[in-house]
Amino acid sequence: xxLRRIRLEGDPILRKKSRPIDEINDRIQVLLDxxxxxxxxxxxxxxxxxxxxxxxxxxxxxxxxxxxxxxxxEIIDEEGxxxxxxxxxxxxxxxxxxxxxxxxxIKYINEDGEExxxxxxxxxxxxxxxxxxxxxxxxxxxxVIEYVDLTAEEDEETLEEEEES
Length: 165
Ligand code: ZN
Description:
Radius of gyration: 15 Å
CATH superfamily: Peptide deformylase
Strand order of the largest sheet: 1-2-3-6-7
Number of helices: 3
Strand content: 25-35%
Oligomer: single chain
Number of strands: 8
Bound molecules: zinc ion
CATH topology: Peptide Deformylase
């Protein structure tokens, strides 16, 4: 496994649409492993392939229950709305409030080529939506309602809960 360089806001690759993966070969397995390692190193809860310069529909998410490798995700159902604070490894030192569905259900292919249905709520729902947006060239900054000052002392509790993906 190897760390990959995380692309930052302003890099045109973050604005492109990623292509579906039609064959899970060794290169894709290595990509997914590297993405997990890169996400962990950066202490993020999610990472999408375009963030490491690869325009393929792959994301990794870890909300504290171990890494999930997600290929060709599609949202098949969503429910409710929730406004919460988000950050992004491609947009360092910034965080803002974004409205997302409270619960989502997705269909994806795992690294063994099997179709999986995953339901997520709270942080997992937020991470899923944030990462799928990356596959379509969308950043959370496109949807932000209000930026949050990360240096304000009264926001200490919020800071602890803030997660970057
Ligand atoms: Zn992000």
